[in-house]
């Protein structure tokens, strides 16, 4: 039954006679006489039989003509001949009347697409008489690259079929070998089996003047194939058996063009399937030069030897709805890159013309939907022509502006679903169709285009989208300021995602929160300026990768960091301050600097609470150092006095003891004197160090 390819990406083509079938059929059938009004009743049943082996369509028209025009006065009404419309190029004409051969001639018309087969009715058909006529002719294969419609070979057939009788008294039957898959454009037909053929019947046609079909059939087993490798893939070119020139041309064009297109696009062949290119004039019937079906990676193009058409359809390997969501984007890229691939060849490629504001079919390109190849009216065709022209103009102009290298980066970014706004160090991705909005941002922020926004305003968007563009412009200004404000810190990923999705309200909220965090960051840096302490190592990453909830939490975390930074700054200032004699004595053998270093490390590791606790302990230790030193000095003095008393007491005892104990007592006396001398030296050294900074422990040692 009638169908159209799935995932079609078509290339509008030349307007051939075949492309004008729907309109011409009505003109042709309307040219036949209104028989009943002329006094003759015409019953006619036409049968078209496809004969691929002979390369013809056999046509048999069974006519029953009845003269219903009575005489009037001296006038007698009769018919001496009868004409039946045929496609131009009909051959092997013959006719019989009631089984007897009749002469037939061909009579041309003003329309080059069809002629008349004129049957001699001898003897004349008088009033009340009936003539039973069988008229036969063949529609021969007209061969490739001709304006005639009929094609008949072992792989493909197409022809017109129409009725030639009165209202309700005429029908059309089409017989096709079962090896052929069929399609048709025009009125409905019923299908049934007929031996080794399929039969398609119209039934009684009530309005023959508005009835007609363009019938096509294909038998891919009859195609002649060539194949070649392009990288890891195989390209299969399938041509009609009577058109080896087309096969050679397409093979040569594809072999040269595929590697060049791959380099220009910047992406490897995206499909795992091989590519099949088939010769058929089916696209011509709908006004297209060819089409690409993404579901099975196949191209169908007409018999013209046009390299631009071949490369346009091959470009759709990349430029299809797997890459860009809008039809105009894919068609614009396909045509632009077909022309780029031909650059430097002998082929002349026209530049696109700027579409006029009053151009026929003018529309916003976002409204140019998928092709409705069943529709064939002036408005549809005008919209199709405008869509192709405007899409090509926009993409070609942008490619000229930023250059193929920058456009390659845009295409690669689109293929990887890259955020339109780059992060650090690598761009993040967001899985979503690349529509006109994302393409615009990629063109500006990846490709560096300055013309994109105006081109999109002029040709791509609806008027209602202007509000979105105004919101975009304001939000993007805020974004650029935030980029500058952040310095080496990338804008948070959540904000860049919201900007990519054109969610400007949420993006604005996220940027406001980001600015608050950056303010806190700068306050922390200023607070720590004299300490040598760095920002927490995780702070930047947390900021850059935060989602909505994490960004809000990070603001609170930044306030915690700022409080800890204040504590550390106070601790460092206290540690560097001048210390008196007693404070120095109090800090003797105290490693408070180690505690401060540990607090610094914990801050840089992102633990603000423990950093603050360590800093507070250092400040407390330094605050208590003076009183601890005073206690230590008092204890040292008391100890010295006690030792001196012991020394004097021992000396007195020595004089009174007997000589035999003199040696032992003398030794004890020497030890006591040495201890007293050591203690005196230590006290003196401590006093000397009172002008310098002491060493630290978290807790001062207890005197003993």
Characterise the protein shown here.
- Helices cover 42% and strands 20% of the residues.
- The N terminus and C terminus are likely disordered.
- The chain folds into 4 domains: 191 residues, Immunoglobulin-like (Sandwich), CATH 2.60.40; 192 residues, Orthogonal Bundle (Neutral Protease, domain 2), CATH 1.10.390.10; 92 residues, no CATH class; 128 residues, no CATH class.
- The protein has 16 helices and 21 strands.
- Helix 14 runs antiparallel to helix 15.
- A hairpin with a 4-residue loop joins strand 20 and strand 21.
What is shown here, in short?
The protein has 704 residues and is an alpha+beta fold. The chain has helices at residues 21-30, 244-265, 307-315, 327-342, 378-415, 436-445, 452-460, 466-486, 493-500, 504-527, 539-545, 548-576, 581-586, 592-604, 608-656, 662-688, and strands spanning 8-12, 40-51, 56-67, 79-87, 90-97, 100-102, 104-107, 114-125, 130-140, 151-152, 156-161, 170-177, 181-186, 190-194, 197-201, 213-218, 224-230, 233-239, 275-279, 288-293, 298-301. The protein folds into 4 domains: 31-221, tricorn interacting facor f3 domain (Immunoglobulin-like); 223-414, Neutral Protease, domain 2; 483-574, no CATH class; 577-704, no CATH class.
């Amino acid at each position: 039954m009638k169908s159209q390819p799935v995932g079609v990406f078509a290339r509008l083509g030349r307007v051939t006679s075949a492309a004008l079938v729907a309109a011409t059929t009505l003109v042709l059938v309307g040219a036949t006489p209104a028989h009943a009004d002329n006094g003759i009743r015409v019953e006619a049943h036409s049968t078209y039989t496809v004969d691929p082996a002979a390369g013809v369509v056999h046509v048999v028209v069974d006519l029953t003509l009845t003269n219903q025009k009575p005489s009037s006065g001296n006038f007698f009404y009769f018919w001496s001949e009868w004409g039946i419309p045929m496609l131009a190029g009909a051959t092997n004409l013959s006719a019989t009347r009631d089984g007897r051969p009749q002469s037939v001639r061909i009579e041309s018309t003003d329309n080059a697409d069809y002629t008349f087969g004129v049957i001699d009715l001898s003897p004349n058909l008088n009033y009340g008489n009936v003539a039973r006529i069988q008229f036969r002719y063949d529609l021969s294969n007209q061969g490739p690259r001709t304006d005639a419609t009929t094609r008949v070979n072992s792989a493909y057939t197409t022809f017109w079929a129409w009725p030639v009788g009165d209202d309700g008294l005429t029908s059309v039957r089409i017989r096709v070998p079962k090896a052929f898959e069929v399609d048709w454009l025009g009125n409905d037909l019923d299908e049934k089996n007929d031996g080794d053929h399929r039969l398609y019947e119209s039934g009684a046609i009530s309005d023959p003047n508005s009835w007609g079909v363009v019938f096509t059939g294909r038998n891919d087993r009859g195609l002649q194939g060539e194949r070649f490798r392009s990288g890891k893939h195989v390209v299969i070119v399938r041509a009609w058996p009577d058109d080896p020139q087309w096969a050679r041309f397409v093979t040569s064009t594809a072999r040269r063009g595929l590697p060049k297109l791959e380099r220009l696009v910047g992406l490897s062949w995206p499909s795992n399937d091989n590519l099949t290119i088939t010769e058929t004039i089916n696209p011509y019937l709908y006004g297209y030069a060819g089409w690409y079906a993404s579901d099975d990676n196949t191209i169908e193009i007409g018999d013209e030897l046009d390299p631009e058409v071949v490369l346009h359809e091959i470009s759709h390997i990349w430029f299809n709805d797997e890459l860009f969501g809008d039809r105009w984007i894919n068609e614009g890229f396909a045509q632009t890159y077909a022309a780029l691939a031909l650059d430097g060849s002998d082929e002349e490629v026209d530049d696109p013309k700027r579409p006029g504001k009053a151009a026929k079919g003018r529309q916003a390109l976002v409204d140019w939907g998928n092709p409705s190849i069943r529709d064939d009216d002036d408005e549809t065709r005008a919209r199709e022509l405008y869509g192709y022209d405007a899409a090509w103009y926009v993409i070609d102009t942008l490619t000229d502006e930023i250059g193929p290298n920058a456009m390659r980066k845009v295409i690669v970014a689109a293929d990887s679903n890259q955020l339109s706004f780059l992060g650090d160090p690598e761009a993040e991705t967001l899985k979503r169709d690349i529509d006109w909005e994302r393409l615009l941002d990629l063109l500006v922020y990846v490709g560096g285009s300055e013309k994109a926004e105006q081109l999109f305003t002029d040709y791509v968007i609806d008027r209602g989208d202007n509000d979105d563009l105004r919101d975009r412009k304001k939000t993007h200004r805020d974004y650029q300021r935030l980029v500058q404000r952040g310095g080496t810190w990338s804008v948070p990923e959540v904000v860049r995602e919201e900007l990519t999705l054109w969610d400007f309200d949420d993006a604005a909220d996220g940027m406001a929160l980001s600015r608050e965090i950056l303010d806190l960051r700068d306050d922390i840096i200023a607070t720590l300026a004299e300490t040598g302490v760095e920002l927490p190592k995780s702070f930047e990453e947390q900021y850059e990768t935060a989602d909505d909830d994490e960004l809000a939490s990070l603001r609170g975390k930044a306030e915690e960091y700022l409080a800890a930074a204040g504590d550390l700054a106070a601790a460092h200032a206290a540690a560097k301050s001048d210390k008196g004699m007693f404070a120095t004595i109090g800090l003797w053998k105290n490693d408070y600097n180690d505690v401060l270093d540990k607090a610094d490390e914990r801050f840089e590791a992102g633990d603000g609470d423990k950093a603050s606790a360590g800093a507070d302990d250092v400040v407390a230790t330094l605050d208590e150092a003076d009183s601890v030193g005073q206690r230590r000095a008092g204890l040292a003095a008391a100890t010295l006095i006690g030792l001196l008393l012991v020394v004097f007491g021992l000396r007195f005892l020595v004089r009174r003891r007997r000589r035999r104990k003199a040696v032992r007592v003398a030794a004890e006396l020497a030890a006591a004197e040495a201890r007293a001398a050591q203690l005196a030296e230590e006290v003196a050294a401590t006093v000397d160090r009172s002008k310098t900074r002491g060493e630290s422990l978290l807790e001062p040692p207890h005197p003993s």
